Amino acid sequence: MKKLGFIGAGNMSSAMIGGVVNSGLISGENVTVSDLYQPSLDKAKDSFGVNTTQDSVEVVKNSDIVILAVKPNVYPAVLNQIKEFVDGEKIIVSIAAGKTIESIESILGSDKKVIRVMPNTPALVGEGMAALCKNANITDEELAIVKQIFESFGKAEVVGEYLIDAVIGASGSAPAYVFMFIEAIADAAVIGGMPRPQAYKFAAQAVMGSAKMVLETGKHPGELKDMVCSPAGTTIEAVRVLEEEGFRAAVIKSVVACMDKSKEMSK
Ligand SMILES: NC(=O)C1=CN([C@@H]2O[C@H](COP(=O)(O)OP(=O)(O)OC[C@H]3O[C@@H](n4cnc5c(N)ncnc54)[C@H](OP(=O)(O)O)[C@@H]3O)[C@@H](O)[C@H]2O)C=CC1
Ligand SMILES: O=C(O)[C@@H]1CCC=N1
Questions:
Q1: Which end of the chain, N or C, is less surrounded by CB atoms within 10 Å?
Q2: Which one, of 132, 169, 175, 150, lies nearest residue 265 by Cα?
Q3: Ligand 1 centre and the CA of 26: distance in Å?
């Protein structure tokens, strides 16, 4: 397996490092991670046995595949810092919202190998969802290798880059909305007298199980919802209030706002 590098050891990077090392696909000794903040590197080394450095150039020198896991506003500085060390064989993987493949090529050169991926943080527990798109310099085999990395900690699909804004709305950012939903359900359970840790367990399992039903039954979410709503029962009362309060409209509006922000960042 190739040598993997991460520039940035923050939230998303840590989830991917944990995911890929825990899966056994790549051992920590074949992973090099850089960050400006030494405690982040110490945590990655202690947790996953990876090689660490504060020098992003060292990551590029030691890796066949380099995942850029810094914030979008840091991309230009990092790309300019590493570009002379990115030869025609190294695969650069961008995971940033708002950074198109073209914007990466404008600094590294259009002859370089670039893959854009939109992952999400459930990668940490092997339940990530990632979308991949590539430039013309990436071979099918190289794309398959990078896809295998993201499949080691979840699911991955190849998409056209035009869909990345929708991917961010429906997947990259989506865990945040779901965490809010789980927290709100648990708050209500606490109102009902349930201890908070137990409330989180019940609420989180209900969300995970429901998601698993959507993925594995192939049934429409509306049909699955109807299967829970016993006539004159408890569930339909909750559904009535959710509709009265505009739950679905609020979700749609929030995800559209997320996608709009992604488009704005991409300009
Ligand atoms: N968080 C998520 O759920 C997802 C994030 N992404 C994308 O992943 C990227 C990272 O996001 P996220 O993990 O949330 O951000 P974080 O801020 O958590 O992580 C970024 C890390 O990079 C470090 N850093 C900054 N400059 C450099 C540098 N020059 N060299 C090495 N490390 C550096 C930061 O250090 P310091 O804090 O000291 O600046 C920080 O530790 C973003 O582009 C984001 O769009 C994509 C999908 C999901
Ligand atoms: O909030 C963000 O910009 C990043 C990209 C997708 C999830 N987090």
A1: C
A2: 169
A3: 22
Q: Are 160 and 177 members of one domain? A: no
pLDDT one-digit tens code per residue, 225-238 = 999 999 999 999 99
What b/e readout covers 131-150, taking b as 16+ CB neighbours within 10 angstroms? bbbbbebbeeebbebbbebb
The answer on 154 and 182 residing in a single domain is no
Q: Do residues 38 and 156 share a domain?
A: yes
Q: Give the integer Cα–Cα distance in Å for 155 and 36.
A: 30
Boundary of a domain, candidates 123, 143, 164: 164
Place of tokens 């198109």: 100
Q: Report how far residue 76's alpha carbon sits from residue 161's, in angstroms, rounded to the nearest whole number.
A: 20
Same domain, 135 and 204: no
* Ligand 2 midpoint to CA 195 (Å): 32
Per-residue pLDDT at 1 exceeds 80: no
CATH of the domain at 207: 1.10.3730.10
pTM: 0.95
129 and 43 within one domain: yes
- Total of domains in the chain: 2
pLDDT tens for residues 10-61?
A: 999 999 999 999 999 999 999 999 999 999 999 999 999 999 999 999 999 9
Residues belonging to the binding site for NADP(+) are 7-12, 69-72
Ligand 1 pocket check: which of 43, 71, 120 to mutate, most ligand atoms within 8 Å of Cβ? 71
